[in-house]
Amino acid sequence: MCGIVGVASNAPVNQLIYDALLLLQHRGQDAAGIVTQMDRKFFMHKAKGMVRDVFRTRNMRSLPGNCGLGQVRYPTAGNAFSEEEAQPFYVNAPFGLVLVHNGNLTNAKALKAELFSTDHRHINTESDSEVLLNVLAHELEKTTRGLPLTPADVFKAVEGVHKRVKGSYAVIALIAGHGLLAFRDPFGIRPLCIGKGKDGTYMLASESVALEGTLHQFERNIAPGEAVFIDMHTQLHSQQCAAVSNLNPCIFEYVYLARPDSSMDGISVYQARLNLGETLAKRVISTVPPNEIDVVIPIPESSRPSAAQLAQLLGLPYREGFVKNRYVGRTFIMPGQSVRKKSVRQKLNVIASEFKGRNVLLVDDSIVRGTTSREIVQMAREAGARKVYMASAAPPVRYPNVYGIDMPTKDELVAHNRTVDEIRQIIDCDALIYQDVDAMKQAVASAVLPGYPKVQGFDASCFDGIYVTGDVSDADIARLNENRPSQQDESEGESDRSRLALPNAS
What we know:
Layout: E1 3-8, H1 14-23, E2 31-38, E3 41-48, H2 51-54, H3 57-61, E4 67-73, E5 89-91, E6 97-105, H4 108-117, H5 128-144, H6 151-164, E7 167-175, E8 179-184, E9 193-196, E10 202-205, H7 208-212, E11 217-221, E12 226-231, E13 236-240, H8 251-257, E14 263-264, E15 267-268, H9 269-285, E16 295-298, H10 304-314, E17 322-324, H11 337-347, E18 348-350, E19 359-364, H12 371-382, E20 387-392, H13 420-427, E21 431-434, H14 437-445, H15 461-464, H16 474-482, E22 487-488, E23 495-496
Parallel strand pairs: 16-19, 19-20, 20-21
Antiparallel strand pairs: 1-4, 1-10, 2-3, 2-4, 5-6, 6-7, 7-8, 8-12, 9-10, 9-11, 12-13, 14-15, 17-18, 22-23
Helix pairs in contact: 4-5, 5-6, 9-10, 9-14, 11-12
């Protein structure tokens, strides 16, 4: 998962892109990058780290121009340590291209071999985004053959990309001297939307919050398979470029990844999480009588809307029992299991008075590995809780995700090949309640905003094992896992196979 933004304006865009990236920081903390264009020349700065640390005044001054791109990176493939794999990526022909990408290509290895043997293009990193850039460059070269570039040529090139590339991809690219291009995979797995400022500036971004937070009016979502091209005169052209398209957004965006104040594909993220709490309440009643629960406590932060709605429906007190330290590194970055365990204690602290002598229901957005959940349950018991129940607003995570969320391998997923009671014993809680898969889909689909059609399908592959692109086998998953980023722990000699930024993913 990453956050991407593109801006086409008649005024300098460096500060605007920086501000938008701050609003998308939750989508990636590994690296950040900005590229701008002035007089057909690109100016780029990218490095590992958070946006506020990567860009200083001197860096911002070196990014002139009225159009540009930005990305916050959360690696799901390639080398997590390499600054060279931070985005944007650049290639000099044709015209000069830079690109930012959110998603994950499932056929990157085959494409890389094809680019070398057939297209005669060199890939210098392990990033699938560089593969995607070179596929786009090759398709653009085929459509133009030295002729002036027209929007029709650009759309023809995107058609070629759709035919060759498999997986998930929301893309924004700059074509030197010609304009800004954005397109989305035919399933619309990863989000992308467009807005416009009062001065005529266009902004494209992963989430609507980036538009609204920079005073741009949200206009619409980019449709699955659609391409949008904004020329140097800030004229917008759009076309459907996929032979077949069908909206199946990633449901994990609504469960956890996106900011609650965003809307994506006509669905309010906040309302979706309230709905998840409502359906979860029904599951709780069937497992634990409400009169046996004294208090409902969320595990910060994404679970708060669900927990609050659940508590209200059950007529139970809602309390904040954990305080989050925002200045401690995320636990998913910690390389070894014992280091991760220590980091949970540094990251969360209990308010003992909310636990002592009570039967508490802890609510989380999801449970992935289960190790952090176990640690949190232990913290609740140490604070004096009589009984500790746990409820997950998402169903059991039983399968890897291949579309841009770095889920662990099957063997590392606590729910894989285990019953709910077996998971409960591992987490060591007194009762464990999971959301139902169909109820989750219905809850999210029901959060549709006025004027939008109801989304008919989702990618929920990590919950139901159904990969919407229809081209993913067990062998493909094994191959993709070989290219996942790892964090080597020099002191313990073990690697962290998942970088998923979930409170209880590590």
